[in-house]
Amino acid sequence: MQSLRAEGSVVPFAGLDGVVAAVRFDSVGDGLRRVEEFGGSAAQDGLPEADTNIAGIPEPRHGQIRRIINSVVAFHKSQRIEPYLQDLTARLLDDVHARAAVAGDAGVDVMAGLADAVPPAAMAHLLGFPEADALAYYRWADEIGTRFQAAAASGTSLSMGDACPEFAAYVDARIEERRALPRDQWPEDALTRFLVTEVDGERLEPRAIRTQIMFMIGAGSDTTRNLIGNLLYRLALAPDAYAALRGDRSLVDAAVEEALRLDAPAQFLVRTCVRDTELVDTALVAGQRVFMCIGSGNRDETVFDAAGEFRLDRAARDHLSFGSGSHVCPGAALARLEARTVLGAFVERVESFSLAPGYEFDGLASAMLQGPKTLFLVLGPAGEET
Known about the structure:
It contains 15 helices and twelve strands. By secondary structure, it is α+β, with helices and mostly antiparallel strands. The strands form four sheets. The protein has a five-stranded mixed sheet. The chain has a three-stranded antiparallel sheet with strand order 4-12-9. α6 packs antiparallel against α11 and α13 packs across α15 (332-349). The protein is globular.
């Protein structure tokens, strides 16, 4: 991407006729903020609203539905999900330490033992779904991702339900179970919020709720596990930074934000020009596709000094990984909370760690997602809180 940034802010996308890519910080940020001119989502054009995820719904309707989703996702604060995450992470780290002691220098896979487990469990807890079902979310999300990529490549549209009927049936069952209970027996969780929240006197119908829940679970699980994995990988490569964290816990937030910047969990978003316009100095026409390359924008050398380095002294949230403007990711606070909780537990309980000998970055087989599939670490002893 560095060579593309040298060519300009908006460049032709190789192999896709007429498609362009915003690759610098200015063009990506500007494109993401201009929601009235750049909208939609890959393979979501022309679907009924109830089958369209929030990213694909245009303004002004997007803003109305987003208010419901914001209410639902923000509910993690009043639901006291942080103590749950702390307890879950502690239990998982106990098991990781036990397996690390047996594995020795071969290392323990902290993706399977920790990073994979936390995000879907958090989503299940938030929604009031069984925690035992949470790891199935990845299989369903992978199926959706594969089918959406095929639909986007062929220029067709696909509903969330058709992309993974098994997942759709699962969410439908949870909704119907809740609706079958007397209203005074509904627990105060995010599913109840979806069912009862009104915006301008309107509630979402069950089919629309299913669509948004499937999108939230898929996006929230994949991207947050990538964030946690990328964060631990970067710290394994930077023992001095980890030592600094052990000495100053106030740096935890900076470490999370720097991992978000350097290794954006979602490397790009696809947008469509709503009308003829310009992006920076490039003329675009209605209907033209634009790849908003978040990962490239986050490494723009004109904005970030030593952009390819992991550093704890940067401006905390000066990156594009959660988008920009009014359509910033509604799950950003929850993702940050999960990553902060995991890293905080690591800092308290793991004195030092390193990549297992011979381990090389084992990335996901996805152009869009950035994160390790496996991450084998050699852990030092369990440490006392410093």
